[in-house]
Automatic annotation (TrEMBL):
InterPro entries: Ald_DH/histidinol_DH, Ald_DH_C, Ald_DH_N, Aldehyde_DH_dom, Aldehyde_DH_Superfamily. Coiled coil: none annotated. The keyword Cell membrane does not apply. The keyword Oxidoreductase applies. This is Succinate-semialdehyde dehydrogenase. It comes from Erythrobacter dokdonensis DSW-74. Residues 15-476 form the Aldehyde dehydrogenase domain. Belongs to the aldehyde dehydrogenase family. SUPFAM superfamilies: ALDH-like. Keywords: Oxidoreductase. One of its GO terms (molecular function) is oxidoreductase activity, acting on the aldehyde or oxo group of donors, NAD or NADP as acceptor. It comes from the Bacteria.
Amino acid sequence: MTAYPTLKMLIDGQWIATGEAGEMAVVNPSTGAEIGQCPKASTAQLDKALKAADDAFATWSKTPGAERYAILRRAADRLRERAPAIARVITAEMGKPHAQGLGEILSACDTIDFLAEEAKRRGGRLIPTRGQALIAQMVTHEPIGPAVLLTPWNFPVNLPAKKIAGALAAGCTAILKPAENTPASAQLLVECFTDAGLPKGVLNLVYGDPGPVSEHLIASPVTRKVSFTGSTAVGKHLGALAASLMRRFTPELGGHAPVIVSRHADFERAVAMCAATKFRNAGQVCVSPTRFLVDKAIYDNFVAEFAERAAKLKVGDPGADESVDMGPLAHSRRIAAMEQVVADVGGNRGEVVTGGAAIAGQGFFFQPTVIANPAPDSRLMNEEPFGPIAGIVPYDTIEDAVRIANSLRYGLAAYAFSGDLDEAHYLGNSLRAGMVGINQLIVASPETPFGGIGDSGFGSEGGEEGYLAFTDTKLVMMAKAGG
Ligand code: NAD
């Protein structure tokens, strides 16, 4: 059993256990037990972190890409070595089963590696000039400046790692404010960077109440870039503040991913993948498949098999039993949110085929839930559930399915299963989302851009976009000195 670490902030290279604004409890969602006390930064402490990031930017932004690469690669190696222990802390803080936590961390290592390589690899470009007088038109990507990184609890290592690696690789300094319920996961990640030899002030870590801390950091004149992952409502609020101050802003927000299952799909493969992926991380994944739109010819079988698989999942405390398939929800608010979704179906507004209720006990457990034929205006079909609830509806034509899939303002991920080449092509082209998965449900890898459209945000993390998101584009047009 990994001991829960003493929580400390990192400000200007110093680990600080005392929060001048007090402390907040960290709770294990599987047991409801308090596992730690997290220091809360005062505005003076936030200002120190901002000053440290500002001071360090002068040297870090000029550090050669090859040196930034070497430090980031060492950090990824530290993270790989420590992955099993850190995965246990993820389990304790937010209830993710160990194997899923381990997978998250190893994927974060690969992302850090990829972005580190961008620091060596990424150049600018030369654009041909229009006349003899000009010698060169040179485009470069300059680090924006100190970045504020605001991350949620559902991927408490991978999401901070993506943002930190993108910022640091590009030559930016950063202040990370992780979610209040998963501070240790972030702290152990940040330690990998400091142990890898990162100079002081380049990366700072602060904790506290998310609203006031985020707003103070964004409003500071030091801050040049804000990267936020979380809900659409908070993203819009923080985005309005960032825009009013001309801070560059990348929001990665909620989603409500549709999955179209055609009569031409490999049925067994599709239903097995859908049922397994829906309940990963208890459905608390922004790209989680959620609205299943199934051809009416295969609908009844799909519902029956999906529900059977859901009902068989082993739900429990992953800290006590590593073989559980699904842990708890991250906190009690999520249980209340699931209950509201279920309360909105029934009668002619949908049928709970399996699950539908919280599981009694100290932890925040909710049954894997399948709802057949939820009404078009139900919460489930319109609001991101962010939990272990799947809605399945039949469709008549593939065009109807696409219309329902594209009917919401969200546009993060969308998926489709079809063995018909023309239809698969049509679906890939017609689904309106930042990321589309065809015949599989994975839309993230270290090398590829990750991001949404519409109410799911804009811009991308990961891939080369995850590096460029922390840069300003600069043009240098050079003429002969003698005219
Ligand atoms: P929540 O909005 O209370 O918290 C979600 C995250 O936002 C937390 O990390 C929190 O620290 C942060 N946050 C909350 N209020 C904030 C504020 N005023 N300023 C800055 N940050 C703030 O919701 P919750 O119940 O914990 O999580 C569920 C909701 O969050 C869902 O609607 C889901 O869309 C969203 N969420 C999205 C992602 C994602 O990957 N896009 C991840 C986690 C949560």
